[in-house]
């Protein structure tokens, strides 16, 4: 670590030592004992500008306090059938660890429909997975390897990506904005697999809009990416959609527990059991209440808005060129 890097971390730490106690408490839930690495993440996200990183981190802490994020792991989505519906339509899971000890998260971007529950359930579920990763999985991996492990690897499956994905862009932008503002620099590398032509067309125009730091993290792999991914992880850690020969649907698997998106997968079973246990510790005599955990939804940053508009424009263009859509209104995003 260079002198300038360490100086910036020290400056930010000195500023954070001055925040009020309530913010310090929620900061502990963020850094989990790895404070320098956490400060470094926020500094990277603001191009090493200490004042901007300080504002970003304080805003994040205030968001956590205002939305009771520290308690979100005590709020399982119930009943289980509703949570299963969320899992079946918001395809995300954890398949294992890379050889460096980084958790491998899989996202079924192309086949996620986000149509089985309200927006707030999907945001709640996403934040719960983030918090479980940061408070349980990463600290456990750090202890196992005897060094700080504070980031993960993500494999994004584009199988099934269609023009109808336009209706999901709004929600996906909200979720990515939550991550950008409150969980910055948590992903080491994004691997894109099973990319159809429509993705390639969008990527070509979106890529130049991304910050160089983000562009360097994205790798578009050939086919299901199996051969490339096996260079950094064992076969057992591959997401299920990367294990098959050739491309294929990522929603279903012959064995339900094999699909890392399924509620029956060990990762989701452990996560759900953990949340129910935490709920019983917090309110031992109270039944778990049904209802979504509402989080204030952030406004997308200017960069994110530009990217969404570019994707929308490219999808409309693609649809019109291929005769896949009639008017622009047919693809209008709903505000519901």
Automatic annotation (TrEMBL):
Pfam families: CRAL_TRIO, CRAL_TRIO_N. This is CRAL-TRIO domain-containing protein. Residues 79-239 form the CRAL-TRIO domain. It comes from the Eukaryota. SUPFAM superfamilies: CRAL/TRIO domain (SSF52087), CRAL/TRIO N-terminal domain (SSF46938).
């Amino acid at each position: 670590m260079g002198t300038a890097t360490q100086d910036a971390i020290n400056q930010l730490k000195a500023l954070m030592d001055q925040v009020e106690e309530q913010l310090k408490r929620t900061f502990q839930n963020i850094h989990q004992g790895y404070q320098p690495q956490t400060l470094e993440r926020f500094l990277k996200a603001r191009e090493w500008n200490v004042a901007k990183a300080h504002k970003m981190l304080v805003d994040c802490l205030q968001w956590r306090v205002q939305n009771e994020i520290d308690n979100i792991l005590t709020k399982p989505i119930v009943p289980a059938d509703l949570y299963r519906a969320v899992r079946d339509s918001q395809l995300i899971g954890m398949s294992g660890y890379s050889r460096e000890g980084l958790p491998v998260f899989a996202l079924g971007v192309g086949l996620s429909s986000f149509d089985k529950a309200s927006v707030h359930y999907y945001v709640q579920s996403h934040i719960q997975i983030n918090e479980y990763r940061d408070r349980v999985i990463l600290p456990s991996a750090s202890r196992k390897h005897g060094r700080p492990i504070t980031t993960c690897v993500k494999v994004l499956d584009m199988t099934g990506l269609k023009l109808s994905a336009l209706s999901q862009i709004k929600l996906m932008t909200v979720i990515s904005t939550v991550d950008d503002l409150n969980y910055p620099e948590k992903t080491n590398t994004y691997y894109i697999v099973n990319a159809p032509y429509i993705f390639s067309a969008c990527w070509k125009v979106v890529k130049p809009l991304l910050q160089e730091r983000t562009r360097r993290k994205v790798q578009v792999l050939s086919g299901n990416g199996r051969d490339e991914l096996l260079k950094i992880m064992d076969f057992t850690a591959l997401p299920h959609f990367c294990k098959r020969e050739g491309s294929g649907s990522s929603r279903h698997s012959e064995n339900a527990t094999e699909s890392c998106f399924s509620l029956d997968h060990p990762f989701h079973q452990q996560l759900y059991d953990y949340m129910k246990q935490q709920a019983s510790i917090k309110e031992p005599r109270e039944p778990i209440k049904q209802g979504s955990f509402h989080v204030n939804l952030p406004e997308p940053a200017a960069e994110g808005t530009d990217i969404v508009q570019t994707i929308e424009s490219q999808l409309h263009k693609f649809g019109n060129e291929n005769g896949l859509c009639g008017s622009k209104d047919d693809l209008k995003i709903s505000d519901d």
